[in-house]
């Protein structure tokens, strides 16, 4: 694995090794305080960010490296300069490129012209760092990932795709429960199911909450992805039956909650459960930094 653009680059052992390294980074930070000494990581952001920007910036610092943040004020990729020129220039100076972009094709072109590792920190199709942070969090609460049943509830999107990919590779059961018309990408589902046939994982899509009774973990996301200007009132009626709340936990028997945030309290999730004993949401947010550090260390070194 030389880059991380989709998650499909990982073997099962590589995914397990990243999770193990993430756990060790979290438990023994002093051990890795100089792991990226003398290294520089450029983080490119076309889209707004809280968790991704902060966790990469602080994470690189915790490893003794130097993070350089670039947003659109420094010139829009493909506008002020071609993507290939961004990649070719930055890779002459930096040891790794982390990019949060609108279009996955931007990352593919960047990888083509970069001589250093490229990490996808979010695009329209994939969010691999998030997916791996999620399974790191799950693995802290469940010893055997192959026995875990994870339900994603809401709009089928880039996060859903990355949960499918990571879950398929790791041998877990992942079911997306989406309103009609909001299912994940069919091609990515098929790719994940092909992997699942080899690992013993199960990848499903349904529109019925009834299908996730007896699951272990439920996962939520915002109903409207960043940049989607659809009026909330247009989708509220369609999505409210998929809200993560105490009634859903009671009816399914689910014990733990994840949410990649930003969360819209009272819409995609209630404050009662987000702040309640079932929530692993802020552990999950913290683990973004630890798994991203594991990914950078693995690719850079």
From TrEMBL:
It comes from the Bacteria. The gene is argF-1. PANTHER family: ORNITHINE CARBAMOYLTRANSFERASE, MITOCHONDRIAL, ORNITHINE TRANSCARBAMYLASE, MITOCHONDRIAL. Gene3D superfamilies: Aspartate/ornithine carbamoyltransferase. Pfam families: OTCace, OTCace_N. Its EC number is 2.1.3.3. It is an enzyme of class 2 (transferase). Residues 147-298 form the Aspartate/ornithine carbamoyltransferase Asp/Orn-binding domain. This is Ornithine carbamoyltransferase. Residues 3-139 form the Aspartate/ornithine carbamoyltransferase carbamoyl-P binding domain. Keywords: Transferase. Belongs to the aspartate/ornithine carbamoyltransferase superfamily. It comes from Psychromonas marina.
């Amino acid at each position: 694995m030389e880059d991380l653009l989709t998650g499909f680059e990982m073997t099962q052992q590589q995914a397990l090794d990243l999770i193990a390294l993430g756990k060790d980074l979290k438990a023994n930070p002093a051990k890795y305080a100089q792991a990226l000494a003398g290294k520089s990581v450029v983080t490119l952001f076309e889209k707004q960010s809280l968790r991704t920007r902060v966790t990469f910036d602080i994470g690189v610092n915790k490893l003794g490296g130097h993070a350089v943040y670039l947003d659109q004020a420094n010139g829009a990729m493909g506008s002020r300069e071609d993507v290939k020129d961004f990649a070719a220039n930055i890779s002459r100076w930096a040891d790794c490129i982390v990019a949060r972009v609108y279009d996955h094709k931007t990352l593919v072109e960047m990888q083509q012209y970069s001589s250093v590792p490229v990490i996808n920190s979010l695009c329209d199709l994939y969010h691999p760092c998030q997916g791996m942070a999620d399974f790191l969090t799950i693995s802290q609460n469940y010893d055997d990932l192959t026995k875990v049943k994870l339900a994603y509830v809401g709009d089928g999107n880039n996060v859903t795709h990355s949960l499918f990919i990571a879950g398929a590779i790791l041998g877990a059961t992942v079911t997306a429960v989406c309103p009609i018309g909001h299912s994940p990408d069919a091609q990515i589902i098929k790719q994940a199911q092909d992997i699942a046939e080899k690992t013993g994982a199960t990848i499903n899509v349904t529109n019925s909450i009834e299908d996730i009774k007896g699951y272990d973990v439920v996962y939520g996301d915002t109903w409207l992805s960043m940049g989607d200007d659809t009026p909330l009132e247009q989708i509220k009626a369609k999505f409210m039956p998929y809200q993560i709340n105490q009634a859903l936990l009671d009816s399914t028997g689910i014990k733990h909650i994840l949410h990649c945030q930003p969360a819209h309290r009272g819409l995609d999730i209630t404050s009662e459960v987000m702040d309640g004993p079932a929530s692993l949401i802020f552990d999950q947010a913290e683990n973004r930094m630890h798994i991203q550090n594991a990914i950078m260390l693995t690719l850079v070194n």
